[in-house]
Amino acid sequence: MIHDISVPIRSGGVVYPGNPTIDISAQQAISKGAGANVSRLDLGSHTGTHVDAPKHFFDDGAGVDALPLDLLMGPARLIAMDDSVKSVGEAELRAHDLRGVTRLLIRTRNSAWLSSGSSEFHPDYTFVAPDGAAYLVSLGVKLVGVDYLSVEQFHSGHHRTHRTLLGAGVVIVEGLMLTEPSPGDYDFRCLPLRLAGLDGAPARAVLIGGPDERRSG
């Protein structure tokens, strides 16, 4: 089974406050006499499901096109947090067996908001706390995926979660829709657009296999 965990990108879709809005329009249209349909896209580098590169918070950091592709593909573990969890810190992460995990995806109450398709932004989204980020680095996790448009607390002011992860070479994937797949181990695929030297890029992300498939087999 393949789970598409990417957010559909559409005009007027939800964006992080201050980021460019999404506007998709017809640049050429067969209905207006053109020979083909061609669309114009106006959106930010951190639109929808997207990957953060070190350059997002470090001027001398690598761009998204320089990220190791092997980190963006391979075994991943999906864990689920109770809806009461508003901040994913070390204590919340220690409740899960993360031994040997290289890629970690964290499902929270946020997924329901993303999967609804609403353009409303929820500033009280669940985030990864700085001590949670430091704990994941200490475990050797190399990719962290979250189910809202930022891994960081809204307007944190310090950006410690981003800086801790990106500074340690951890790839951040934001805006994953994780409502459908059950917690467990999957094969993860996430390829950002090859935007030269940029701080981030939209991506298509999927989970393959998983615990449900093993049970049905």
**How many helices in DSSP terms?**
5
Q: Provide the CATH superfamily.
A: Putative cyclase
Q: Helix share of residues?
A: 10-25%
Give the domain tally: 1
Count of beta strands: 12
Question: Main sheet?
Answer: 7 strands, mixed, barrel
**Which term fits the overall shape?**
globular
CATH architecture: 3-Layer(bba) Sandwich
Portion of residues in beta strands equals: 25-35%
**Class of secondary structure makeup:** alpha/beta
Write down the CATH topology.
Glucose Oxidase, domain 1
What is Rg?
A: 17 Å
Order of helices and strands: EEEEEEHEHEHEHEEEH
Low-confidence stretches: none
Q: What is the CATH C-level name? A: Alpha Beta
**Distance linking N and C termini:** 11 Å
Mean pLDDT: 96
Q: Name the strands of the widest sheet in spatial order.
A: 4-10-9-7-5-11-12
Task: Describe the 3D structure.
This protein has 217 residues and is α/β, with parallel strands linked by helices. The protein has a single domain, classed as 3-Layer(bba) Sandwich (Glucose Oxidase, domain 1). The protein is built from five helices and twelve strands. The chain has a seven-stranded mixed barrel with strand order 4-10-9-7-5-11-12. A two-stranded antiparallel ribbon has the order 2-3. Strand 11 (184-192) and strand 12 form a beta hairpin. Helix 3 (130-139) packs parallel to helix 4.
